[in-house]
Amino acid sequence: MRSLFFARPELTWLRVYTFTIFGTSVLVASYFPLYYAQLGFSNTQIGLLYALGPMISLFSNMLWSLTSDRYRTVKKILMLLLLGQIMMTVFLSMSSNFTMIMFCITIFYFFFYPVFPLTDTLAISTAKQYNKNFITIRIFGSIGYATFAIVIGYVLTLIGSKWTLGVSIVIALASLIFSMFVKDRVTDVAKVNLSGIWSILKQKELIWFFGCVFCLAIGLRMNDAFLTISLHDLGATENLIGWSMLASALTEVPIFILLNIYGDRFKELPLLIFASLMFAVRFLLMGLTNSPYGIIGVQMMHGVSFGVFYVTAIRMLTRLIPDSYRATGLALFTVMWSSISGLLSGTFGGMVFEHFGRSNFYLVAMAFSVLACCGFASRYLFREPRGPRDIQRTM
């Protein structure tokens, strides 16, 4: 009883922090592109600015996660990253020239992207410490995303998109304050070295998994980069865009709850196949609709696509990678899920959107989802006859 009493404040602060940190994710993913459009940038330029983040995160995720594993601290790294975000957002708010914004946003992304895999690392470690499911903490990120999506939409409708960066500073500052009350968590880590990471990457199943994740992520990141631009082109206001973000984020919550209760009854590969298929259907419908309200309706498929995929992918990843390399493993996952895919979807997707139109843009996104579905299905049908625990024991 005593331990449970003292556990509650720690879990509460971590949930509050997780709730708040996803507010910055809403801004960067959904409202930064509108801010760039207000400055007069073209879709190709916006795509390039979006691609800068994933390009920087290719090494920033690994750098900060390796540092976290090496010095056995997550909390201090998170606080440093949030402080860097705040400083660079201030500089970004002072710029309007495309070249200068490219420079500032590059450094901003260096601090922004590693926050989320490290937050997941902290949540997983804390949940394991108290024999709870990681989803019981991560679900507050989805609730926070939904809440901030609608609140930010209303706020920016009232004060204008020019205050986007000011709102970002406020949310990042709140996240920094809440992070001070979060208890640091470390595992008994092995000494970080390249040979240890290479032993992880030599797993054939892990390489296949990352390849399928990469294909699936391209379509999702294309949608992330140009969803708000699509809505804006169809006449949606910031307020309506906020409702679109709310519709997608809220659908994650029941999916997370259901998978928390019943997820272990289903094997990972069938769930990943299902999620990939739902992504393909979702992007097909996105390409067919010509109404902002239609897009909001399609966005409600986010839970059965992203929600199912994310929970299952984390579950599979924690099985394939030992605890001693958890932060590094999640960083590798983020590199495939967000960094490399985001780099390609931003540059390539921007050109497709500008030169071939929105409908063809989403057909391309659908094609990548179908490819990922085929990859997961092939592994399920032709997998080697050995169990999951056998794979883990080879580590």
Description:
The chain has 395 residues and is mostly helical. The protein has one domain (2-393): Up-down Bundle (Growth Hormone, Chain: A), CATH 1.20.1250. The protein is 83% helix and 0% strand. The protein is built from 15 helices and no strands. The longest helix has 56 residues, at 326-381. Mean pLDDT is 82; it is low at 1-7, 188-193 and 385-395. The chain crosses the membrane at residues 12-34, 46-65, 77-94, 100-123, 135-157, 163-182, 203-220, 240-262, 269-288, 294-317, 329-349, 361-382. Its main location: membrane. It is a multi-pass membrane protein. It is found in: Cell inner membrane.
Cα-to-Cα separation, first versus last residue: 37 Å
Strand content: under 5%
Helix content: over 70%
Question: Treating each run of at least 4 consecutive H or I residues as one helix, how many helices?
Answer: 15
The helix-strand sequence is HHHHHHHHHHHHHHH
CATH class: Mainly Alpha
Any key phrases for this structure?
395 residues; mainly alpha; Growth Hormone, Chain: A; 15 helices; globular; disordered N terminus; disordered C terminus; membrane; MFS_trans_sf; transport; MFS transporter; cell inner membrane
